[in-house]
């Protein structure tokens, strides 16, 4: 099961958004950056370019008024974003900005082609501005910033490798930080989510869990509190980490909130669709006790979540629960059945197979092994799993939501 998740000021975010709009309008025809010269101060620069000292510091991430000769200052924020309008699609945004759909999805950590009105999309990577110095070549600049020559050429619309002293280049840097050592990010944490406000994308810094990682070790790598790692990934200290999973570091991980605690007073015949990766994995946590109701017969039994990463692995809670499952399948087999999972006041459309296999953590329940439980968009743990088996699960999930045949 997916194992993990420094909240910022809403005022700071609002200020930055307002600043972006105002400065972009004010500086559209003027320079967007300035190289600090001997004798310069923030006050002098701010007066020369009609921008406040506080805005200069905010744009450039400055915590003091100190400047160094040769330092490059942004005079306006990067404006590489687009706010989705009614009727927009990824295809439309792709064509509008000349960015491939695949690149748009990668830039914005989208797992589908769905976008919503008001969503802010990156249309090019985040950048820093670099002024070419004597002796610079694209290869050395790319190496300095951990970028590629191809990316620098693409973002600056360069057709060759020729650059000149004093030229201002946009340098893309990777915001989806997949690394094994501590970076030095200047994060802008997202605000805490609420039950009515889905989190639509990944924050600026993420991490791919490595074998042996823990909340403590990951927190040390990024020099952040352990509680932040857990909070941003909707987890607790009792939850486990799985090697290979993507987690959030400086803001909340994506989540739909398609189902919410307390919606239902008890089990119902049909459940709501809840995406495994955007909701389910945060609800069906290890050791959680669930009530499962078979859609066709209405028979119910209890199970315990053993774990799972791409879907939930469950075990009957008692021998009596195992007997109830035997009545449904008659003989253990892989054929899945549409079911509804009830937990914490939520009924979730699901699909359950009838073949016990592999690991077992409940020795007194009358069966050895665990069973596969799929939610919307769950996937198998093994690549060799039959597609027909997966498709049967998908069909059952929709049936359990009252949407299938």
What does this structure look like?
The chain has helices at 10-26, 42-48, 53-60, 90-97, 101-107, 138-145, 149-156, 215-222, 226-232, 276-283, 319-329, 387-400; strands spanning 33-35, 72-74, 81-83, 120-122, 127-131, 168-172, 206-208, 246-248, 289-294, 300-307, 312-316, 333-343, 346-354, 371-374. The chain is of the alpha+beta class and 405 residues long. Among the domains are: 6-77, Membrane-bound Lytic Murein Transglycosylase D, Chain A (Roll); 81-122, Roll (Membrane-bound Lytic Murein Transglycosylase D, Chain A); 206-248, LysM domain (Membrane-bound Lytic Murein Transglycosylase D, Chain A, Roll), CATH 3.10.350; 276-400, Thrombin, subunit H (Beta Barrel). The strands form 5 sheets. Strands 9-10-11-14-13-12 form a 6-stranded antiparallel barrel. The protein has a two-stranded antiparallel sheet with strand order 1-2. A two-stranded antiparallel ribbon has the order 3-4. The protein is elongated, with a radius of gyration of 26 Å. Residues 1-29 and 174-191 have low confidence and may be disordered.
